[in-house]
Amino acid sequence: MARVTLQTIADEVGVSRMTVSNAFSRPNQLSAALRSQIMDAAARLGYSGPDPSGRALARGRTGAIGVVLTNSPRDAFTDETAVGFLRAVAGTLADAGYSLVLLHSSERSDVDPVRDIAMDGAIVYSCAPRAREVTALHERRLPLVTVESAPLGDEPQILLDDAAGSRQAAAHLLELGHRDVALIVTSVDVADEPLTAEHRASASDTIGRRLDGWTSELATAGVAPRIVGTTGFDVDDVLRDRIGAMLETPPTAVLAFSDLAALEVIEQARARGIRVPEDLSVVGFDDSPLAARLSPPLTTVHQDVDAKGTAAATTLLALLKEEKPTTLTLPTSLVVRGSTAAAPRR
């Protein structure tokens, strides 16, 4: 069977090739009757439309926006905070006529999505600035927005007021009488040691701000916290093992960098017969849907995930219009639930 083209449809209907093209890409330039006639002919002849690559080239945009996550695509949907962020991004982009592409870096030389997929811009979510995916996007000179990440260049950022929320969390524990406090973090290679300036210096941008908030409040009460961490950016096997080791001589309270990390502490504590909150108070960060479902419900720092996703997408859309958006910092606040209580007497 001969290949069906725009010209095939044009000959069938008796119009120009440009008129057929307009029926697909600029339908408002045709009468409803003529466009219906063209689309009926296309359907009858098995023609689905012009090649997307050619259409993107002609329009000067692909209609696709990439998102790079800390997690791999395989794990991206296990974190409800990341899922909520993606949902808000996708909805805002869809309203503007764009689709979302979840990106990752590949070691295969023939296929590398961050290098090869056509897109108009990208959002970088909670990644190290020198991550391979981020540097690859910079090399393409695409419009970028970073979210909870240190920028590699001068791209606009969407941040949380991490320090304010962390200060509230630490103050809450101090009010409850806790003086033996452990901090659970990522991006820092440390196995249950007293916190030092070197630990803070090695932390990622986001974790560094949370450390600043926790320690500024704890220091006012003369509390020197313990710190447990991993060089990764998620709750990995290293962090799980180090949390387990910490619980062999448990503190009275834990401040965790995320709700998922708080859950790991609670589950391992329960397995050792350590009661939450009677023996151990636990505070998370994010206020994901998970937090309210836990038993006991988790005290945590709230962030507005929908606002964060909407802000990221809106900022990128502004960049695509050649506007110059600035960095936006979103508020955080402590939500007290049942996972914290007065410090136990020892």
TrEMBL record:
Q: Which SMART domains match?
A: HTH_LACI
**UniProt xrefs under CDD domains:** HTH_LacI
Q: Report whether Transcription shows up as a keyword of the record.
A: yes
Q: Which UniProt keywords apply?
A: DNA-binding, Transcription, Transcription regulation
Using the record's annotation, list all stretches that form the HTH lacI-type domain.
Answer: 4-59
This protein's source sits in the domain of life called Bacteria
A molecular function (GO) held by this record is: DNA binding
PANTHER family (UniProt xref)? LACI-RELATED TRANSCRIPTIONAL REPRESSOR, TRANSCRIPTIONAL REGULATORY PROTEIN
What protein is this chain from? Answer: DNA-binding LacI/PurR family transcriptional regulator
